[in-house]
Amino acid sequence: MNWEVVIGLEIHTQLSTKSKLFSGAAVGFGAEPNTQTTLVDLGMPGALPVFNKEALRMAVMFGHAINAEIGMTSVFARKNYFYPDLPKGYQTSQMDHPIVGKGYLDVTLEDGTTSRVGITRAHLEEDAGKSLHEDFHGMTGIDLNRSSTPLLEIVSEPDIRSAKEAVAYVKMIHSIVTYLGICDGNMAEGSMRCDINLSLRPKGQQEYGTRTEIKNVNSFRFIEKAIYTEIERQADILEDGGRIIQETRLYDPEKNETRSMRSKEDANDYRYFPCPDLLPIVLTQEYVDDIKATLPELPSQKAARFQSEYSLSEYDAHVLSSSRAMAEYFENAQSVVKDAKLTANWAMGELSKLLNQEQIDIDQSPVNAIAFGELLVRIKDNTINGKTAKDVLQAMWQGEGSADDIIEAKGLKQVTDTGAIEAMIQGILDANTAQVEQFRAADEDKQKKMIGFFVGQVMKASQGKANPGMVNPILAKMLKG
Amino acid sequence: MSIDKQDVQKIAHLARLALTEEDADQYQHSLSSVLSLVEQMQSVNTDGVEPLSNPLEMTQRLREDKVTEENRRDAFLANAPKTDAGLFLVPQVIE
């Protein structure tokens, strides 16, 4: 059977406010347990929430970035359930009147195709605390530091049709929220978490199949793998004539499988109702427009500009604009080099390779954009060739100084003096008379293959400093004799 | 409109309340009468009326994004029956 996969995603992004959504406690990862809590976060009777202005601004900003309707009147609601890390007995969230309504994103896939993913809504809600299940002699430890941390939950339409498309969409959301500066995007610390709703249906069928929800997947790679394994699991069941049970599942990265957490039958009945402790939030058009005016250039706009302004390919433009820090690095380096293609190749090639090796982000690069640009200038003006430049970049990475310092100190300057190159070539020819004889006796096709040997010898003799653009024609002429 | 015993037990479970048989009988009766009242109210024509989320004709006041509270962990933990390593301890919630 040919199955079509239908995916909708719910992404929780932690907003990077200084204080909590409803209290004046600090927000931050890794603090000592329960040192960032207040009576409000502990759910003490009579403690009243006061809504954080900055969380509102961030949510509206996101709404603009996904072309959404902004909820001019939005309402907080109580989502009721009992769990020890939620001492109030309800999560303050939004239901009927979210702050961000319908919007969409155009997602570019690796193969360059674009698809539109609808966004149903994005709403503000508070996070719960953390339960620690180990080491407390059969009891559970509760840390409420995370309680009332502001989250924006972004809910997509079931418009996604593949694991690759899902990952591209999440990456795009990641890139937007970090561009906007409303989320630090740190998935390892839980700043972005993803719930995956997935079902299969026979190709061509209109109605959706029964779906499962995979909770709290927290890396791009795991999202992709969780989707593949869940597709396989559902397809196996359906092909054996079985039925999918609507349930919540967990992805286990170690075993690369999803397993059941709870089924719909004992699922929670959340009994949402408007929160009487919080009044409706009413926005003015002026407020909404003012925020729109502060929007930075977004990844897709930047990619389009990189193509028109620098004549970069769609792929290069997309890669360079996907992170704000990378885009800035590229533009700063390019302003020194004045050669976008060269800068793009080196930023995406050698530089990214070094960053990956060390597993650091571009903003932690030991070589800054200007220094990187100065290195590329020396390739462009033929002071060094590409091979030498890689060595220079390595030395810069190790903190040995600027490109020019290193080229000078190590005597790496390319030999561009015709006389010197001729002398060097003559030396090679004299030392390899047998090969020269062979070369001269060969026909033209063979010669083309044989010349590589001599080029290699020259580069070796010059320790890579001979300018290949000059060596080739001079060598060809001298070999002819 | 009336509800049965099972509904009462389900509502009690959702609210984590333990009901005796007698309690359940009583609640079945009183909740049913509340629902009758709701039913009566539902006969009012509300076409074109926006649902009211709060009876106060006011809008939410906003707070500046500033950290105004300091760490009072010791005082908070002092209320808890059991604590360890700065954590509140509760009966185990995972199998």
Automatic annotation (TrEMBL), chain A:
<dbReference type="InterPro" id="IPR004413">
    <property type="entry name" value="GatB"/>
</dbReference>
<keyword id="KW-0648">Protein biosynthesis</keyword>
<keyword id="KW-0436">Ligase</keyword>
<protein>
    <recommendedName>
        <fullName>Aspartyl/glutamyl-tRNA(Asn/Gln) amidotransferase subunit B</fullName>
        <ecNumber>6.3.5.-</ecNumber>
    </recommendedName>
</protein>
<dbReference type="InterPro" id="IPR018027">
    <property type="entry name" value="Asn/Gln_amidotransferase"/>
</dbReference>
<dbReference type="InterPro" id="IPR042114">
    <property type="entry name" value="GatB_C_1"/>
</dbReference>
<dbReference type="Pfam" id="PF02637">
    <property type="entry name" value="GatB_Yqey"/>
</dbReference>
<feature type="domain" description="Asn/Gln amidotransferase">
    <location>
        <begin position="328"/>
        <end position="479"/>
    </location>
</feature>
<keyword id="KW-0547">Nucleotide-binding</keyword>
<dbReference type="InterPro" id="IPR023168">
    <property type="entry name" value="GatB_Yqey_C_2"/>
</dbReference>
<keyword id="KW-0067">ATP-binding</keyword>
<dbReference type="InterPro" id="IPR003789">
    <property type="entry name" value="Asn/Gln_tRNA_amidoTrase-B-like"/>
</dbReference>
<dbReference type="InterPro" id="IPR017958">
    <property type="entry name" value="Gln-tRNA_amidoTrfase_suB_CS"/>
</dbReference>
<dbReference type="Pfam" id="PF02934">
    <property type="entry name" value="GatB_N"/>
</dbReference>
<dbReference type="InterPro" id="IPR006075">
    <property type="entry name" value="Asn/Gln-tRNA_Trfase_suB/E_cat"/>
</dbReference>
<dbReference type="InterPro" id="IPR017959">
    <property type="entry name" value="Asn/Gln-tRNA_amidoTrfase_suB/E"/>
</dbReference>
<comment type="function">
    <text>Allows the formation of correctly charged Asn-tRNA(Asn) or Gln-tRNA(Gln) through the transamidation of misacylated Asp-tRNA(Asn) or Glu-tRNA(Gln) in organisms which lack either or both of asparaginyl-tRNA or glutaminyl-tRNA synthetases. The reaction takes place in the presence of glutamine and ATP through an activated phospho-Asp-tRNA(Asn) or phospho-Glu-tRNA(Gln).</text>
</comment>
<dbReference type="InterPro" id="IPR014746">
    <property type="entry name" value="Gln_synth/guanido_kin_cat_dom"/>
</dbReference>
<comment type="subunit">
    <text>Heterotrimer of A, B and C subunits.</text>
</comment>
<comment type="similarity">
    <text>Belongs to the GatB/GatE family. GatB subfamily.</text>
</comment>
UniProtKB/TrEMBL annotation, chain B:
<dbReference type="InterPro" id="IPR003837">
    <property type="entry name" value="GatC"/>
</dbReference>
<comment type="subunit">
    <text>Heterotrimer of A, B and C subunits.</text>
</comment>
<dbReference type="InterPro" id="IPR036113">
    <property type="entry name" value="Asp/Glu-ADT_sf_sub_c"/>
</dbReference>
<dbReference type="Pfam" id="PF02686">
    <property type="entry name" value="GatC"/>
</dbReference>
<protein>
    <recommendedName>
        <fullName>Aspartyl/glutamyl-tRNA(Asn/Gln) amidotransferase subunit C</fullName>
        <ecNumber>6.3.5.-</ecNumber>
    </recommendedName>
</protein>
<keyword id="KW-0067">ATP-binding</keyword>
<comment type="similarity">
    <text>Belongs to the GatC family.</text>
</comment>
<keyword id="KW-0547">Nucleotide-binding</keyword>
<keyword id="KW-0436">Ligase</keyword>
<keyword id="KW-0648">Protein biosynthesis</keyword>
<comment type="function">
    <text>Allows the formation of correctly charged Asn-tRNA(Asn) or Gln-tRNA(Gln) through the transamidation of misacylated Asp-tRNA(Asn) or Glu-tRNA(Gln) in organisms which lack either or both of asparaginyl-tRNA or glutaminyl-tRNA synthetases. The reaction takes place in the presence of glutamine and ATP through an activated phospho-Asp-tRNA(Asn) or phospho-Glu-tRNA(Gln).</text>
</comment>
